[in-house]
Give the backbone structure.
Amino acid sequence: MIPVTKPFLPPKVEYDNLLQGIWERNWLTNNGPLVNDLELSLKRYLELPHLLFLSNGTIAIQIALKALNVTKEVITTPFSYVATTSSLVWEGCKPIFVDIDGKSLNIDPKKIEKAITKDTQAILATHCFGNPCDVDAIETIAKKHDLKVIYDAAHCFGTNYNGGSIFNYGDISTTSFHATKLFHTIEGGAVFTNDSLLLKKMVYLRNFGHDGSEQFNGVGINGKNSEFHAAMGVCNLKHIKEILAARKAQSEIYDQLLFNKKLNIVKPKILDGAEFNYAYYPVVFENEEIALNVKATLERGKVFPRRYFYPSLSDLNYVTKQPTPIADDIASRILCLPLYHSLSTQEQELIARIIIRTIKYN
Ligand SMILES: *Cc1c(COP(=O)(O)O)cnc(C)c1O
C-alpha cells in the first residue's frame, strides 16, 4: 500500500533519550524545558525573532485572528485545507472568497481589491502546497486599505523567499506541525510575528490569559503543547536537512518520469524568488474525468493519491457561496501524488507507469 503521505519518524533511540529526561523531571507540559528548547532551535534554524509553539495549526489561526482583533469580513482563498475557512467561521468572522490564480493556485492579488468592503479587516491567505503567495502584492494592497494580513503557512516549513523564511511575512504567519506535514511534532503548530507586542499578546492567549498564577490578562484559550510533542520536534529538527533533500530528489524523479511525455498535466508555478520546500507533489490533469480515472486506477494498484483540495472551500455548506470558478475547476482535476521520506524510486516508477498508461491508453 502506498499512501499519499507517511509521517517521518526519527530513530527511536533519539526519542527515548529525551523521554528519559521527561521522566526524571516529571514535567510534562506547561512551557517545559523541551518546549523551550524546541522554540529556541526553531528560531535559530528559521532565523526568526519570535515564534510560539502551539497545540496545532488550527488553534494557531484562531489565536492570530484573536490577537489582531479580527471579527468581521476576511478575504481568503477558496483553495486550501478546510481549517483555513473553518477557523474563520469558528471565530465569528465572515470568509469572503477571492478566486485563485490558475497557475500558482494561490489567491489572486489582482482580484482582492474588488472584494474589499467597509467591513473588511484582514486577508487570510494560504501559501498553497508550500508555494508562497505573491506576498509583495498582498502587502501593498493591505497597506493601502489598512488591512491585517495572516498567512496560513501550514505547508511552508523550509520554504524561503528573498533569502529568508516565508514565515517572516504578514502581521502573523501560522503553521502546522501535524504528523502529515514535512516537519512535525505529531500534533502541533506555531505562530510567527516580527512584532514583539503581538507576540506578548499571543503568549497570554495561548495560556488562558494567565499573567502569573492568580492574575489574568484578558480571555485566553489553551493553545499550549506538551513536552512529548516538543521532544518529537527536537528529534525531527535534527533530520530536517535529509527530510528536505529527500522531498526535492523525489520530486525531481517524478518530474523526469511524468513530464515531456505529452500527458497534458501541469504543476503549480512557484513564485519567482522563492526557494520551494517540495512539501507536496500536486499534478493538475486536463479534466476531472482523467483525474478521477487516474485516481481509480492507482487505487486498484494500492496507491492512494489525494484530491488536495476538494471540494473548493466556497462550496462548504456553512459559508455563503461566492463564485470562484478557477478554484472550482482546479479542485475538480488536481491530485497530490504520494510523497514522503521513505518513498522509493521503484514505487515512484510504478506510480508513473500507472498514470502514463491511464492517460495514454484509456
Ligand atoms: C494541516 C493544515 C492546517 C491545520 O493544521 P492542524 O495542525 O492539523 O490543525 C491548516 N491549514 C492548512 C493549509 C493545512 O494544510
